[in-house]
Amino acid sequence: MDLVVALVLCLCSLLLLSLWKQSSGKGKLPPGPTPLPILGNILQLDLSKVYGPVFTLYFGMKPTVVLHGYEVVKEALIDLGEEFSRRGSYPVIQRASKGYGIIFSNGKIWKATRRFSLMTLRNFGMGKRSIEDRVQEEARCLVEELRKTNGLPCDPTFILGCAPCNVICSIIFRNRFDYKDQIFLDLMERLNENVRILGSPWLQLCSSFPALMDYIPGKHKKFFENYACMKSFVLEKTREHQASLDINNPRDFIDCFLTKMEQEKHNQELEYTAENLANTVLDLFAAGTETTSTTLRYGLLLLLKHPEVTAKVQEEIDHVIGRHRSPCMQDRSHMPYTDAVIHEIQRYIDLVPTNLPHAVTCDIKFRNYLIPKGTDILTSLTSVLHDDKEFPNPEVFDPGHFLDESGNFRKSDYFMAFSTGKRICVGEGLARMELFLFLTTILQKFTLKSVVDPKDLDTTPVVNGLVSVPPFYQLCFIPV
Fold first, then answer.
1. Is residue 41 within 8 Å of residue 62, measured between CB atoms?
2. How many angstroms separate the CA atoms of 137 and 132, rounded?
3. Is 425 known as a binding-site position?
């Protein structure tokens, strides 16, 4: 009975606190719908037609400013990039990473880690091979794995996940894994499970009420367990690297970070530590695997749905590359239609609809509203990628969105598939390379065959809270 009374008192206290927070300071923020007690506006998202391009939602008891449309997103993330550069609240991941890494960190740690990671990825002439060599090698391995399906119907999810995962592993750990390696399989499974957990309604509830995580069981506990196991693997690899480190001849990302740690060991700041290294590696591992593999999987589904598009891409491959030479990045400038198709895949699938949350670094006057320091900001990438003035009939898959009247590739400032501004995806260059080389290599070596009539294929995104994923499908890879 005492427990019931305590729960009722807690709920009443939360309700009063919620109502007080919603009424206090409200005039400083953009307008928005009246929040629901406790749950806030968590179920009300399509509100731009009522409140305009800038409005306020409440997730739980926390106000979040939503930016909708190209002009306002550009104004915030590019024109006022520094003021909108803080990472917004994502309690589950931030608790696991302890504020370290590259994606969910802030302040000096974020700036130093991002600068170092960008420099290392851009200068990856380290060792004997460039990043492009690694991607081409993995593309050949991918083709061999696809041949093993013998042209029979298969779900491509696992194989398409292994390829980009191995590329990032070769950059981070120096070595790629065999697709049947048990350690590799365990890492993949834990990563995939954590992505599923992050997209679950339960985790969205935990994000709205982070205090609950300490007191109740649930999927967040499994997330922490998986994260700890993957982090333990990285720390073990780090110790192995330390034992054989040659600071004059770094072999991979870990070696470069360890070398930087040695150079900065007398610095009192905490940017270059084993803790930050482990979390940065996990950020690169997760982001470098999941986003690219989902885009590849979704891309193949769209190519199945639109065989006329696939035929034109293969015609361009035959003309520019031929059947025997491996595709390379120099080919892309001579393949405008293929380039347009890849951009249209990314635009159409709208992989991360609301972007990762931002926050403002200071009190800022924005479009006549005063947004207090630390306020979370959601930027609707959907509203940019599906803008009907820039992309006529945005709900239709049409490579013509990125072609001019002469059939040349047409760039668009509205293409924000990797976000934009100071928090733009660090791995954008690598992801673009992987998408081009993997897709052209697959289409060079295989004909894609649907197991159902292409007209019956469903390409509607399944939004799972964090990213948009394609519905389940099977296809046959028929060797050319």
1. no
2. 9
3. yes
Residues of the chain with pLDDT under 70: 1-27, 36-46, 124-129, 463-465
User: How far apart are alpha carbons 295 and 214 in whole angstroms?
Assistant: 35
Q: Which one-letter amino acid corresponds to residue 293?
A: S
Report whether 383 contacts 49 (CB < 8 A): no
Strand partners, 359: 86, 376
Nearest Cα neighbor of 168 from 188, 148, 189 is 188
Distance between CA 420 and CA 183 in Å, rounded? 35
Structure tokens at 335: 């393949």
3-state helix, strand, coil in the chain (%, to 5): 55, 10, 35
pTM of this structure: 0.91
Overall size of the chain counted in residues: 480
Token pair 């120099």 in the structure block, residue: 330
CA distances from 36 to 40, 43, 346, 431, 463 (A): 4, 9, 35, 40, 23
What is the rounded distance in angstroms from the CA atom of residue 102 to the CA atom of residue 361? 17
The domain defined by 61-479 carries CATH number 3.30.70.2970: no
CB 285 within 8 A of CB 426: no
What are the phi and psi torsion angles at 174 (to 5°)? 80, -35
Task: Give every CB contact of residue 20 below 8 A, 6+ residues apart in sequence.
Answer: none
Q: Do the Cβ atoms of 61 and 26 come closer than 8 Å?
A: no
- Reading the block at residue 382, the tokens are 């959907």
Could you give the CA distance from residue 343 to residue 14 in angstroms, rounded to a whole number?
A: 46
Rounded Cα gap, residues 214 and 216, in angstroms: 6
Give the integer Cα–Cα distance in Å for 312 and 480. 16
Domain boundaries, the chain: 61-479
What single letter denotes the amino acid at residue 195?
Answer: V
pLDDT tens by residue, 78-92: 999 999 999 999 899
